[in-house]
What does this fold into?
Amino acid sequence: LEKDGDIWSLSNGSWVLRHSLSVSNLLMHQGDCFYSTHAGGYVWSNLELGLLVSRDEGDTWEVISSPVDGYLFGAFENDNRLVATTADGIWEISFGPIQGCTDASACNYDEAASLDGGSCDYSCCPGPGCCHAGTVWDISLQQCVVAEPAYLNEPGETAVLNPCYFDSDDDGLVDVNDLMNLLTVYNLACGEIPETTASWQCGDPLEYQGYDYATVQIGEQCWFAENLRAENYRNGEEMLSDVIGNQWEYLAEGACAVYGESDGCEEAEFYSACDPIESLNAFGRLYNWYAVNNIHEICPSTWHVPTDVEWDVLDEAMGGGNLTDEALKSTVGWNSDNGTNASGFSAIPSGKRDVPGGDFIDAGDTGGWWSSTENGATYAWTRLLNTTASELVRYGPNKKDGYSIRCIKDAE
It folds into this structure.
């Protein structure tokens, strides 16, 4: 056989290079495969089966002979190419697996890769490098979530079930709600879609971390109608709490507190505000801004802490000025100037935890709620209602102060 100046012959069923105009001898011999230069490329020959393929400088393969149908012999060099003949003797060239990081939780995950080359990187932040023990990075949510293996040890006769695996609503507890969720899919085959029931609507209670929050529709927005009282982030991780006195002002991480739980507490006229149990029931919890700005999120899934702009939208929906003040305030609980609560927002005077000092002040006189929007490196925007102003006040306090949180539903 003559091909582009190279002379090949079939001897005892094997192809042998007899002469080449490019070189006078073979450059490499490995097992039953010969390689030689050919037009600046390579010629591959299997002496046992008589397969002959060449590659030119453009890195494309050309079949010179295909005497054996359906034979697949392997990869060419390091480019992961496979060659086989079809039943009608036509050659097919396919590319092998693409190497890269195949772990979807890694920083450098390559969706196209099918062969892990050991190059996965887990050091990025935000990313896997930020996740605490017991949590893993969720690439779709772009946050750390609780790792939920079905078992705490190897499955078997003595296997221990993992409670987190059964926490269907991500509130950090396995409770009756999870049992009810399980019953909705009872007796269904794996993968079978259950019949849909009435979907949740704004105005319905929303269960989160063992507590049912009232919700209210105001204009195009859906809000919590009471202050957040969660001690854990969305993924179940517990935030810092029980911080004593002036230690509060030195924090640079997310923390929560119950009004009156330590020294330095101003009483309210209509609540025993310095009784932590009563103030928790009346006011929820107070949070510094670092709890708001946390990768794990503090509001339930599909909810978030409102932005500064979203607070403006609420103000405009209520008419602005004293109209907003009256419509948002609850009808009882304020030391003076109770509102009409025409909006159903039920704003209560939950006070604040002040810095410096970490004292609890202004319960009965002021209610303040964080936004997720910064006001420079040291401050962030809040909204205040109080007994001395007749409007929803935009205020930018220190991020270390403790204020309430109202969650708002994500836009559809």
Remarks:
- Helices lie at 176-183, 276-283, 289-292, 308-317, 321-328.
- The longest helix spans residues 308-317.
- Confidence is low (pLDDT under 50) at residues 18-51, 55-95.
